[in-house]
Amino acid sequence: MTESLSQEVTTTSNSELFNRICGIDPSCVENRKKYESLINDMKCPICLKIVCKPLECVLCETLICEDCKFILNLAEQSCVTPNCKGQYEKANKFIREILTALKIKCFACNASNLNYTNYLKHIEECEQYKKNPPMTMIRIINKNNETINELKKEYESLEKINVNSLSANELRLNMVTSKLSISEKMDLYNAAVEGRVPDFKKLIEVNNFPILEEVSAKSYGWTPFHYAMHYGKWEIIKYIMNYLNDHNQLNLALMLKSSDGRCPLLCLLRSNTVNIEKKKEIFANIMKEFKYINISDEVMKELRNRGLGYLVEGRR
Q1: Packing angle, helices 182-193 and 197-205, rounded to 10
Q2: Measured distance CA(19)–CA(242) in Å, rounded
């Protein structure tokens, strides 16, 4: 009989177990008839099972399983409810106390009559449960997500240190070039300020012109990036930002100040050739296309002074 049970568990592990995560399958609740209405109110909208280690949205109060949250992370969503921006936190004590009324059977080894607290302890130790391939996958994904988030924070921290450690002059000396002849500089300048994307692209990709070439009077430090912002040429701006992003230079280039103290974003915001509606449109496009750029305190202050601070609130 023991061999028969073992064979049954093994067979289940290879076929049906995939559909028995992450929450508690209602069929594993031994007193489910008594608490049928309760069970229906405690289902996770992701796995469609009774929530296990429940998390609760601070705004809409939707419940999900702790192990199901990785689905939201992969989808870059904060909440399962459409248009809700709430974050998930550990469910309140009342929710957890309700779960303690259930008598649960382990779907992997058939251990029975477990209350909720003992069930959580059991699945941490159950060898059959640990062998469940989907659960192993979820643990790996969650661990990898934690590692990725830690590395992102470390990278952002190092990037800020590197940018802040360079003075405006040092950054300009490291990034702005002055290699072209006067006529070549004018070709690059004209293509940028006139918004001629195919011509500008050819100069960069075919003629190998430096994209951060100084095209202003000597020592002023204005590049095509600064001029495209100043004249509100969105398609040129987008091309330059994509190019710099592909070369891991975008955030540094956004900090490049000309001799009059203007970084590219300030060239847009302080431009006297672009009206406020156009500035708003371009800046909104930038934030949509390039979500993870650094916004300096100086740019943030300028945005607020012009009533545009809402464009970046919550994204710094």
Answers
A1: 140
A2: 42
Q: State the pairing for strand pair 54-57/88-90.
A: antiparallel
Full strand arrangement of the beta sheet holding 54-57: 63-65, 54-57, 88-90
> Cβ atoms within 10 A of the Cβ of 245, count?
16
Which alpha helices (DSSP H) does 112-166 contain, by range? Answer: 116-125, 127-130, 133-165
Q: How many CB atoms are closer than 10 A to CB 310? A: 11
74-86 pLDDT per residue, tens: 777 888 888 888 8
- Whether the CB-CB separation of 114 and 105 falls below 8 Å is answered with yes
Q: What is the longest distance spanned by two Cα atoms in the chain?
A: 90
Are the C-beta atoms of residues 224 and 188 closer than 8 Å to each other? yes
pLDDT in tens, 257-286: 988 889 999 999 999 999 999 999 999 999
Give the separation between CA 226 and CA 237, rounded to whole angstroms: 9
Backbone conformation region of residue 217, classed left if phi is above 0, alpha if psi is from -120 to 50, else beta: beta
DSSP β-bridge partners for residue 177: 213
Helix, strand, coil share of the chain (percent; to 5):
55, 5, 40
Alpha carbon distance 205, 184 (integer Å): 14
| 89, β-bridge pairs | 56
How buried is residue 112: exposed, middle or buried, by Cβ count under 10 Å (0-12/13-18/19+)?
A: exposed
Which is nearest to 231 in space by CA: 274, 287, 185, 190?
274
| DSSP character at residue 140 | H
Token pair, residue 149, equals 């988030």
Model pTM above 0.70: no
